[in-house]
Amino acid sequence: xxxxxxxxxxxxxxxxxxxxxxxxxxxxxxxxxxxxxxxxxxxxxxxxxxxxxxxxxxxxxxxxxxxxxxxxxxxxxxxxxxxxxxxxxxxxxxxxxxxxxxxxx
Length: 105
Hints:
Elements: H1 2-7, E1 11-14, H2 17-27, E2 36-40, E3 54-58, H3 60-76, E4 89-92
Parallel strand pairs: 1-2, 2-3
Antiparallel strand pairs: 3-4
Organism: Modestobacter versicolor
GO molecular function, one term: DNA-binding transcription factor activity
Keywords: DNA-binding, Transcription, Transcription regulation
């Protein structure tokens, strides 16, 4: 972790809960500054981790509903062209992602 600070790394985004927990474990007893950290996919225990983990929370119900809607749409009209659906997410800010030095909180 100290090597990260020396190389200029100030923030890390992990793509899933397993990677988030692995990074927190790796950084736990390391001296020096920690990079800001945001995980992708809300973790039930995010509030009790040290530090509490900022996450991008997905709407699992919304994703499931969109998938079912697309499936039924495809069954009803197999010739329709593929389309994309965007399901909103939300950023849950906790202490693992403090503002940069000098930035307003």
